[in-house]
Amino acid sequence: MRSVLVGWAFDPVRRSSYDPRWRKASVQGAEWTSKVASVPPCTGLILAWNAATPPGAGIACEISASIDGRWSAWTPMGEWGAVPPTTPPESPIRRDVDTASWKGTADAVRVRVRRMANQEGRLPRLKRIILACDAETGDEPHQSPPTPGPAIRAVPFRSQMGESPEIARRICGPASLAMHLAAREPLLRTEEVAAAVYDRAHDLYGNWAHLAAVAGEHGFVAWVERYARLADVEERLLAGYGAILSLSFEADELEGAPIPWTTGHLLVLRGWDEEGNPVCNDPAFPDNRGDGVVYRREQLERAWAAHGGATILLRPE
């Protein structure tokens, strides 16, 4: 499976190599609705947003898809900041926290965003909306040949395990994001990133869209995408993007990992060594053993593919 990107830019944005093809957009009032975007046949999507959100303000995102020739109802797909709860309508779209899926195939999608002002009347400023639509790619092998290397990016390491015991084992995502943000904001603490990322509706720190949203609040272009091959992500690293991978693995499936198994874990992919093995910053290590840890390529790629090849990409604006 791979993603087909659809992106709308409300602010001028530098087009970089692997960005979406940005569609210009503008919003005047509290609500914005996109034009219909045609896409290759797809069975789901991940929505991400980048915005500047004043305290007490909020953003509510909804999607609609033309599935087997019929448009679905508007379906909630993302909440950010101060957003009141809503009751989802009857819809063929099934939402699972940060992903949407449906039976059948869709060939067109659209997005609606409602901006909610804070007590001072200040509205969030939308920067970008990105859809990563799931397109079938056939039976591609999970293991891919390494990109010629080595190539290793410098990303300062942080361990999630040094944070408050109440959250330490739950914040692999915020810790991974904090590593990327540290180059610009070295004084920004991991616990602050975790508080900003936290998804109250689902009691999660690992909401992929929220991680991209926090990156957007700190001056990054960021979204979530699926890839069929690790080599595709390596190409993006060479082009200057940062990458956070989502993994899932059983006991003994990832040799050297600090946790025996997981249904969902996030880490930073920094590059690869002379043999093509991935070099990562793994926040689950309690010490600097996670700084540049090397995993076996076929094992990491399998664990990443088990979570759908989900990757958070980010680059400075």
Structure description:
- This protein has 2 domains: about 1-135, Jelly Rolls (Sandwich), CATH 2.60.120; about 150-315, Cathepsin B, Chain A (Alpha-Beta Complex).
- Helices cover about 15% and strands about 40% of the residues.
- It has helices at about 170-180, 190-195, 210-215, 230-240, 295-305, and strands spanning about 1-10, 20-25, 30-35, 35-50, 60-65, 70, 75-80, 95, 100-115, 125-135, 150, 220-225, 240-250, 260-270, 280, 290-295, 310-315.
- The strands form 2 sheets. Strands 1, 2, 3, 4, 5, 6, 7, 8, 9 and 10 form a 10-stranded mixed sheet that branches. Strands 11, 12, 13, 14, 15, 16 and 17 form a 7-stranded antiparallel sheet that branches.
- The longest helix is centred in the middle third of the chain and has 10 residues, at about 170-180.
- The CA-CA distance between the termini, in Å, is 28 Å
- pLDDT average, as an integer? 95
Q: What is the CATH topology assignment of the largest domain?
A: Cathepsin B, Chain A
Instruction: Report the sheet with the most strands, covering strand number, pairing sense and barrel closure.
Output: 10 strands, mixed
Name of the level-1 CATH class of the largest domain: Alpha Beta
Compose a concise summary of this entry.
The protein has 317 residues and is mainly β. The chain is built from five helices and 17 strands. Helix 1 crosses helix 2 (190-197).
What does the secondary structure layout of this molecule look like, with pairings?
Elements: E1 2-9, E2 22-24, E3 31-33, E4 37-52, E5 58-67, E6 70-71, E7 75-81, E8 94-96, E9 99-116, E10 125-135, E11 151-152, H1 172-181, H2 190-197, H3 208-217, E12 220-226, H4 230-238, E13 242-249, E14 262-272, E15 278-281, E16 291-294, H5 297-305, E17 310-316
Parallel strand pairs: 1-2
Antiparallel strand pairs: 1-10, 3-9, 4-9, 4-10, 5-6, 5-7, 5-9, 8-9, 11-14, 12-17, 13-14, 13-17, 14-15, 15-16
Helix pairs in contact: 1-2
